[in-house]
Amino acid sequence: MLLWIFLVGFAAANEEFSLENKTHHAQYRGSQVLRVRNATESIRNLLKSLEGEKAIEIWKQSNVFGKFTDILVPSFTLSFVRQQFENLNATFRVMIADVESAMHEQIAIAPRRQSNKNKKSRSYNLTFQRYHRISDIYAYLEYLVSKFPSICSIETIGTTIQGREIKVLKISGSNAKFGFYIEGGIHAREWVSPASVAYIVRELVEYRSKNSFAENADYYVSPVANPDGYEFTHTNSRLWRKNRRDSTDKSCPGVDLNRNYGYQWGGLGASRQSCDETFAGENSFSEPETQAVRDFLTKIGPSVQAYVAFHSYGQYILYPYGYDKVLAPDSAVLQKLGARIARNIKKASKKKYKVGNSAILLYEASGGADDWAKGSVGIKYTYTIELRDAGRYGFLLPASQIEATGKDAFIAIKTITQEIAGIGRKKKSRF
Ligand SMILES: [Zn+2]
User: Fold this and answer.
1) Looking at 203, 289, 386, 419, which residue is catalytic?
2) How confident is the model over 206-219, as a mean pLDDT?
3) Rounded to the nearest whole angstrom, what is the distance from the C-alpha of residue 3 to the centroid of ligand 1?
4) Is 183 an active-site residue?
């Protein structure tokens, strides 16, 4: 009865919740992010049913008992949801007391002021002091090609549903022995991912003289793997995750691109319902964004030995498989190298990243890019890295943390490159 009364009220409020306009952050006024301890089966079931009723949105999930699930609770369901937790004696704490304020905080940090002289000499707007639209990120790639034509080139590997280009920057090594694919921004709302990938690009190109390890590889860098979704988070709905595919009934657009890849597609942790955040699509590789990566990697062939996809948040270094609790035969190698990455990051920044198999450490998710890269293409060193933070801001990480997060990401790329190239293992490496 209580749920029924709640749902009637919720249906009316939901109209407003989905408003798409310029002041889209206002829809989150009074919404909170809660961290709930996953202590019992009944708490887990409650979370599932609340999510099914759209009374909450799952931000970060763990299927492991005793761990936490982070949820976004809209203001108009807040008292109902909190009451439900109290009824079950569920332990929870407030991570973000007002989501709208956190959104403003994230974008409020002004860029470092450039002097006029400095500004004139630059042909791009990208900074690491704020989050940028895709046009700024792409303009930076174009600038690098014009300034460093001997090592940089751009290939447009596909076009999105809304007609945006999917670009890959190739950074050629003078002594390249293998290819290294770097993917950012497949989930639209994880803003620190494209920003960190852009940071990696700057290190590999503009600061190349102090990063000579990079000569051992050809890097293929796709900073924004989901351009339509990424732009939508800037213009309409900050917490959008999927691409912008129209669904058959028009009411629930979007496919989760990281459930659309063709290795064990449509299994655990992927939904067949278009309204769900993890909707896997009508078929594997049904989306132009995933087709583009598939075709490009098939074309560049077996030289690629590493594939790293950057996501946020949680600070995890994850290796396949994700479709079930199944380990690849060489998983011990991936665990060991993952632990080395985590150690190097900790040395540099004191931040802790947990290392493990994604299905065991977090939850099952089939149709991911990482499973496909490992299982179908056979790329040995495949990782999904969840960047900062550990949950204080979640997807709304303040821009003041972009540089430090980019540095974590760069350390991962450096450590993996050194491992494959067989360098830097004995020497004490500095980051
Ligand atoms: Zn993600």
Assistant:
1) 386
2) 97
3) 31
4) no
**How many Å lie between the centroid of ligand 1 and the Cα of residue 174?**
33
Question: In sequence order, what DSSP letters do the residues of 96-126 get, joined into one string?
Answer: ES-HHHHHHHHHHSPPPPPPHHHHHT-S---
- Separation CA 121–CA 372 (nearest Å): 43
Instruction: Tell me the CA–centroid distance for residue 121 and ligand 1, in Å.
Output: 36
Query: What are the start-end ranges of the H helices in 243-378?
Result: 288-300, 331-349, 358-361, 369-375
> Phi and psi dihedrals of 218, rounded to 5?
-100, 120
Averaged pLDDT of the chain: 90
Would the pLDDT of 140 be above 90?
A: yes
Q: Does the predicted TM-score (pTM) go above 0.90?
A: yes
Q: Which CATH class is domain 2-107?
A: alpha beta
Distance (angstroms) between ligand 1 centre and the Cα of 387 equals 10
- Give the whole-angstrom CA distance, residue 372 versus residue 291: 12
Rounded to the nearest angstrom, the distance between the alpha carbon of 311 and the centre of ligand 1 is 4
Cβ-contact 300, 179 below 8 angstroms: yes
As residues whose CB is below 5 A from the ion ligand 1, the structure lists 187, 311
Q: What percent of the chain has pLDDT over 70?
A: 89
Q: Would you tell me which CATH number, out of the four given (3.20.20.70, 3.40.50.11270, 3.40.630.10, 3.30.70.20), belongs to the domain 116-421?
A: 3.40.630.10
Residue 183 in contact with residue 307, Cβ under 8 Å? yes
Residue 395 near residue 189 (C-beta atoms within 8 A): yes
Q: Tell me the DSSP string of 177-193.
A: -EEEEEEE-SSTT-THH
| Residue extents of the structural domains in the chain | 2-107, 116-421
Q: What is the arithmetic mean of pLDDT over 135-155?
A: 98
Distance (Å) from CA 150 to ligand 1 centroid: 33
